């Protein structure tokens, strides 16, 4: 895959969104739903050299060369949601220029433990803020993180 071309295409999507929002003040053109999820999963897979699974694979989105299952969470807001405890999770927020910030990269149990003793919401998903996630991330040693491509 051409990494530079892929990143350029993602940035052009967000540049178009920014231009539309300037043309129509007050009208949001924020990409959401499947588009954001798929873009984020592909950005993460490309950045961390992961193999993507078929969409909607239960419990994970990609695997490492060593076979570690990775759940990828992508947002443009301040929260992400979990249905189950992933083996490993990478959480990113896509910026409005098409780049992203990594908020978490580590064992899923670190996040899942924060839901212990809490009642499962009606929609079947526990939510956690990026603020809380980033604090948990400070405790993840480098040896437990999936390295980025060099």
TrEMBL record:
Pfam families in alphabetical order: DUF6998
Alphabetical list of InterPro entries matching this protein: DUF6998
Name recorded for this polypeptide: DUF6998 domain-containing protein
Residue ranges occupied by any DUF6998 domain in the UniProt entry: 11-146
Domain of life: Bacteria
